[in-house]
Each structure stands twice: as C-alpha cells, then as structure tokens.
C-alpha cells in the first residue's frame, strides 16, 4: 500500500518521505511541477498538482493507506487570501479525500494555534487542551493553521474520518528555509547575543523527530474522530539556549563568543521596534514582537506527554545529533 504526502519538498514533508522510505514503504507525493525532482530524489512517486485542486487529489489518492498533509504557506510573503486558499482549502480537500478513501489523515498543524503571545508571556504547561486565545491580525500562519484544524475537526465530526493533528513548535533541520539557515549564518559570525542567563530550553524540535511522530500517528488504529498531539521536544539530553547555539558552533567548527544581553534591554528594544511598526500598521503587528523575545528567554511551555502515553512515541534524535545532521546537509550545499 501507498502513503500519500503533500508538502514533500518542504521541511517536514521531506523528512516524512525519508522516514517512510527508510522502512520500505511506497510513497506518493502530490507536488507542484517545480518540486517533482526533489521528491523523486527522495524516492517518492510524484503526482503533479495543486493541493487546492480537487481533481489533483483524486488522481493522487488511488490505492493509498493513509494521507499526510504537510503542505502549507509559512512565511508571510503573500496576502491572507492566499494563505487561506492553500492552508485552509487545501486541508479541507485533504480531509474530504481521506474520508472518501476511508483512510487515516495526519494533518501537520502547529502550536501557533494556541496563540503565541499568551503562551510565551509566562504561561507554562501548555498541553493539547490548553484554550485557544486571540491571534494577531498579521499572524496569517497561526490564523490559517487554526482554521485548518477546525476544518479537520469538523470533517471528522461528520463521521467516517479518522484524523490526527501534529502540533510542532519551531522546527529545524535539513531543507529548512527559515530558522536553521538564520542560526547558521549568525553563528558563523562568531559572536552571539545571549539574552538572559541562557539556561532556558528553547521551544524547538528537529524535523526528523516531527516526521517520526507523524509516522506513529499514521500507524495508530484508524478510529473515527479527531485527536491532536503536541510534538515539541527532542530526545534527552535537552539543551539550554546557550548549549543549543554552542552545538551549532561545534558542528560548524566555529569558536563562538556570547555577548550577554539583559532581558529587560531586549524587551525595551522590541517595544521600541514594534511601537514604530504599529504607527504604520496599528493592528497588524500587535503581540508578535513580544512573543519573539519570550521564545528566546522563556522555558519551553509546551507539554508533549499525550503522544507518548497514547501512541508510545518517543523522539529518536537528540538535539546534538540533529544539529550535526542539519549542519552537514547545509555545509554540503
């Protein structure tokens, strides 16, 4: 049997392809034409099409045993309507296709659905049943990810659909286009600001661990209904903020010097910066800047015990190993 994966050329989807192929499964990827070579190099059969096209879903879904829906816009480079078209309409078609085929759907969501400014502003123990809070207007990603989850829940409530949502925190690893290359570029300069004491644990997770959790959810019994799972930590030992950045330096062969930055100074800088932005866009930038500071200085607030208890899943990669793998991939390119 075949597993259908969307977003197979992206960060999470590509790791899912690798995880499934490593155990001998046949994988089919629904991809845009320009991404065919990427998924085929990872051993997947490619079907060209857009996730917002129902005909493309029908062509791709024949004979599958499950669907992993990882395709989504992440960075705010397009209008909200385009985010909604891809992240919400694409997810609706994924759920409808899974129900029509009678197969399990694993939807890749995000902890952003909880509301980042509230979570990072001192609230810990954020498990899957933590209440959703208002989202900034500008946070197109979080808004459409929440809408997409609601679509999956609604489709599951109609019956005959078994669906799980995987909620990662900030993801790093090979083929990342956002977080990992920025960390590498900063570390290569040899000087790194250390905000606060550096003893907190960042809310980061390796893409290979996210893929492993997705496979575990895919393999779970296909009971009708919806279940969400946080996936927000690598395997022990957990690295502090300072250790995490030092691990990148070690992998890069860089001697890294940390420059202490008091937390209060970081908050002041962010307030000045976000205040200037709000003069131009009073509503769009509210809440996001403060969340960025709390991400750096706060303890990882997310609890990921449900997936361990219900699916018996544990992350296969520790952060030091994952960082070595990611840096080797980027160095080779």
Model description:
With 333 residues, the protein is an alpha/beta fold. It has a domain of 222 residues: 3-Layer(aba) Sandwich (Rossmann fold), CATH 3.40.50. Helices cover 46% and strands 17% of the residues. A seven-stranded parallel β-sheet has the order 3-2-1-4-5-6-10, sandwiched between helices. Helix 1 crosses helix 8, helix 4 packs parallel to helix 6 and helix 7 crosses helix 9.
Proportion in β-strands: 15-25%
Our Rg estimate from Cα atoms comes to 20 Å
Based on secondary structure, the structural category is: alpha/beta
As residue ranges, the low-confidence spans are 272-288
Spell out the helices and strands N to C.
EHEHEHEHEHHEEHEEHEHEHHHH
CATH H-level superfamily of the domain at 2-173 and 203-234 and 300-317: NAD(P)-binding Rossmann-like Domain
Number of strands: 11
Second-tier CATH architecture of the domain at 2-173 and 203-234 and 300-317? 3-Layer(aba) Sandwich
Task: Write out the strand line-up for the largest beta sheet, numbering strands in chain order.
Answer: 3-2-1-4-5-6-10
What about the largest sheet?
7 strands, parallel
Mean pLDDT across the residues is 90
Q: Give the count of helical stretches.
A: 13
Q: State the helical fraction.
A: 40-55%
Named CATH topology of the domain at 2-173 and 203-234 and 300-317: Rossmann fold
Distance between the termini: 34 Å
CATH class of the domain at 2-173 and 203-234 and 300-317: Alpha Beta
Q: What is the approximate shape?
A: globular
């Amino acid at each position: 049997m075949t597993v259908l994966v969307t977003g197979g050329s992206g960060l999470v989807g590509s790791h899912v392809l690798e995880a499934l192929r490593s155990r001998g499964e046949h994988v089919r990827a629904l991809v845009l034409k320009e991404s065919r070579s990427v998924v085929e190099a990872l051993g997947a059969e490619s079907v060209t099409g857009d996730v917002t096209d129902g005909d493309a879903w029908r062509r791709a879904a024949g004979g599958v045993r499950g669907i992993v829906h990882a395709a989504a816009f992440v960075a705010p480079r397009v209008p909200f309507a385009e985010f909604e078209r891809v992240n919400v309409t694409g997810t609706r078609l994924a759920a409808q296709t899974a129900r029509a085929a009678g197969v399990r759907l694993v939807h890749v969501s995000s902890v952003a659905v909880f509301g980042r400014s509230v979570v990072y502003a001192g609230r810990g123990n954020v498990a899957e049943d933590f209440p959703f809070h208002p989202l900034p207007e500008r946070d197109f990603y979080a808004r459409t990810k929440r809408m997409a989850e609601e679509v999956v829940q609604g489709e599951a409530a109609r019956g005959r659909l078994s669906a799980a949502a995987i909620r990662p925190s900030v993801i790093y690893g090979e083929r990342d286009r956002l977080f990992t290359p920025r960390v590498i570029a900063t570390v290569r300069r040899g000087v790194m600001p250390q905000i606060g004491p550096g003893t907190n644990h960042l809310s980061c997770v390796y893409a290979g661990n996210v893929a492993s959790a997705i496979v575990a959810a895919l393999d779970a019994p296909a009971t009708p209904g919806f279940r969400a799972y946080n996936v927000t930590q690598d395997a022990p030992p957990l690295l502090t903020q300072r250790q995490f950045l030092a691990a990148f330096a070690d992998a890069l062969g860089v001697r890294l010097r940390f420059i202490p930055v008091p937390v209060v100074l970081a908050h002041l800088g962010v307030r000045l910066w976000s205040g200037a932005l709000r003069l131009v866009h009073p509503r769009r930038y509210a809440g996001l800047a403060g969340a960025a500071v709390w991400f750096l200085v706060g303890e990882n607030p997310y609890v990921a015990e449900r997936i361990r208890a219900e699916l018996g899943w544990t992350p296969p990669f520790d952060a030091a190993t994952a960082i070595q793998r990611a840096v080797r991939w980027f160095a080779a390119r």
